[in-house]
Amino acid sequence: MLAVLGGLGAALAFATTTLCASRSTRMIGPFSVLAWTMLVGLCLVIPWAVLEGVPASLDGVSAGWLAAAGLGNAGGLLLTYSALRVGKVGIVAPIVSTEGAVAAAISILAGEQIAKGSGLMLAVIALGIVLAAAARAPNADTLRADSKFVPLYAVCAAFCFGVSIYATGRASDSLPVGWAIAPPRVAGVLFVAVPLLVSSRLRLTRSALPLVAVAGVAEVLGFASYALGSRHGIAVSAVLASQFAAIAAIAAYFLFHERLTRVQLAGVVLIVAGVAALILLQA
Q1: Is 175 helix (H, G, I), strand (E, B) or coil?
Q2: Cα Rg, the chain, nearest whole Å
Q3: Residue ranges of the domains in the chain?
Q4: Whose CB has fewer CB within 10 Å in the chain, the N or C terminal residue?
Q5: Distance (Å, rounded) from C-alpha 26 to C-alpha 211?
Q6: Exposure on the CB side of residue 94, measured as CA atoms within 13 A
Q7: Residue 93, number of CB atoms within 10 A of its CB
Q8: Which residue, 37, 46, 4, is CA-closest to 189?
Q9: Which residues are CB-neighbours of 157 under 8 A, at least 6 positions away?
Q10: pLDDT higher for 101 or 69?
Q11: Contact status, residue 72 vs residue 168, Cβ threshold 8 Å
């Protein structure tokens, strides 16, 4: 039951972050949204990590994995926010949710034995991405010119998140949860928030404030919920957490009146089903 609750909690939290980012990036831009999201998250995580204390297992290798996890996550969020600024949640979220498939592919390249059927699921996911990204959207003539880069941003975000997930997995076996969650917030603050603040380009409006605050809190809660659930069942938690894409897409339909073509919808279904099946096969 804890595995189910942890996975569902993570899915709801990540879907909330996605929806908040899809609106706030259009108000203040992806860089400022990332900066404020990471600042809010860091304020929550630092006391947590301090209470846990410096882990005795922290060495050069684990620190390197944590750095890769932090940079990958921060980069993935920036690319996701850039895609959401001009693209639809129903397209961006499912593509980004293939981060688990990317992590699985990296594991395979690193020598991990692939489960039977995993190759087929990776092909299904790839087909889903092609269908979701290639179909002409409704009212395409009215879309911004840079919207054609949305699938590319989302794919690159999935790759960054996949690297982050793999690196976190390599480091988290011997490190407490607070330390595993902290690196992305530290990286986001150091490499995005601080430069924006120094150059006086860090933006925030009254309407964007609650959105970035909720996004920052939800990001931390999502990772914490998944960490708790994975201790009682990694496969169940991972499958449920990956469904944030479906939740976000459905919510965007009702909240933002987003519409997808039948081909795009078929692609989204293939992605969601393929990711869930791949995680179960690799478990």
Answers
A1: coil
A2: 18
A3: 2-282
A4: N
A5: 11
A6: 28
A7: 30
A8: 37
A9: 75, 76, 77, 79, 80, 83, 95, 96, 99
A10: 69
A11: no
What tens digit of pLDDT does each residue of 123-168 get? 888 888 888 776 555 554 444 556 778 889 999 999 998 888 888 7
> Tens digit of pLDDT for each residue in 73-125?
999 999 999 999 988 898 898 899 888 778 777 877 777 666 677 778 878 88
d(CA 36, CA 188): 9
Amino acid present at 57: S
Q: What is the pLDDT of residues 190-219, one digit of tens each?
A: 999 999 999 999 999 999 999 999 999 999
Q: How far is CA 24 from CA 40, 65, 81, 249, in A?
A: 15, 31, 9, 17
Cα separation of 173 and 133, whole Å?
36
Which amino acid is it at 281? L
CB 35 within 8 A of CB 193: yes
Nearest to 215 by CA among 9, 6, 18, 11: 18
pTM score, whole prediction? 0.85
Residue 64, H or E segment: helix 60-86
